[in-house]
Amino acid sequence: MDFDVIVVGGGLVGSAFAAALQDSGFDVALVEAQPPQPPSTQDWDVRVYAISPGNQAFLARLGAWTRVPDTRVAPVQGMDVRGDGGGRLRFDALGAGLPELAFILEGGQLGHALWRGLEQQSNLTRLGGARPQALRFEDAHATIAFSDGRHLTARLIVGADGARSWVRAAAGIAAEPRAYGQLGVVANFETEKPHGHLARQWFRGDGILAFLPLPGNRISIVWSTPEPHARALLALGEAAFCERVRAAGHDALGALSLLTPPAGFPLRLLRLSSLVRPRLALIGDAAHNVHPLAGQGVNLGFHDARCLAATLKAAGHERDCGDYLGLRRYDRARKEDILAMQLVTDGLERLFRMRHPLVRWGRNLGLDLTNRQDWLKNALVRHALS
Questions:
Q1: What is the pTM of this model?
Q2: What DSSP line would sit under 263-282, residue for residue?
Q3: Which of 34, 72, 152, 182 is least surrounded by CB atoms within 10 angstroms?
Q4: How distant, in Å, are the alpha carbons of 173, 191, 318, 379 from that of 315?
Q5: Residues near 70 by beta carbon (within 8 Å), at least 6 away in sequence
Q6: Span 344-377, pLDDT tens digits
């Protein structure tokens, strides 16, 4: 079975990239062993993402955004960041002349919406069931061998298969992630008080806690904290866990009632020297990992999908889409954005981990000084909107 492009990984980023090629003239295959299941209309998914307005517009152009019920999307109209020594930084959408800063929604809802759109895509073949076992590159094409005996060839392989990417490893690309020694503890809650569409974040001695607004009086939390503390949190009973989160959030939203059991995932930083090889491109978490304190991981991935799709379509389907020189355009276009986000998030994580009193005073002063500079805050907001 021959294709122009084979995308390995049908998560949010892989599905969005495949959808972005719908009018490209390329013959595309999407390999995903476990397609997303229809989301529950009653329960809430613990996997929650903050989507930038630029990526919301991208998903709307793909038709996916309109398939997500409005009742499962919460706009973020402001953000309140508190330091560990009195410093404060506040962003306001209206103050910056914007309707919202971001949108919060469940990963299951968005994944299902993207997958439904792929069902009608005429230039796409969806392949599930068997798992890839071997990857071989030749001058004019690449071949993937599957556990059921199938062999697929394509001019370009796109690895969108997550942080522990099989494609990246099979292609022999060295990846040495740096573990933060932290877990991101996530859970959803019903709140006593309305959140007012305000995202809240606290830099604390035991990590970084974020409250993200969900529809109604509901929030999702991400508590990035050292692994021993994270394990202790996950071992708490429901009532004790709710009380611990309420106290850590300075009782900002009153009493909390758990909607989803807490879960934890390891945090790490991954930098690659290149996102491409001849006949290969990496996107999403297969290409980079960042600390979640800015909520930009999936947004970086959607930027990858947008950029790679635009690069391929600009060259045209008559050109060899796996040509290394063409793929280098995508690599160069993405490197600066990825590196900037990694430097900012990693730098902030390191800065707020330091316990020296002078460092603590300086970082909180920095938050206050930034908060007084509207031009700087608006510049930060504009960058985050893309």
A1: 0.95
A2: EEEEEEEB--S-SEETTEEE
A3: 34
A4: 26, 51, 8, 33
A5: none
A6: 999 999 999 898 999 999 999 999 999 888 877 7
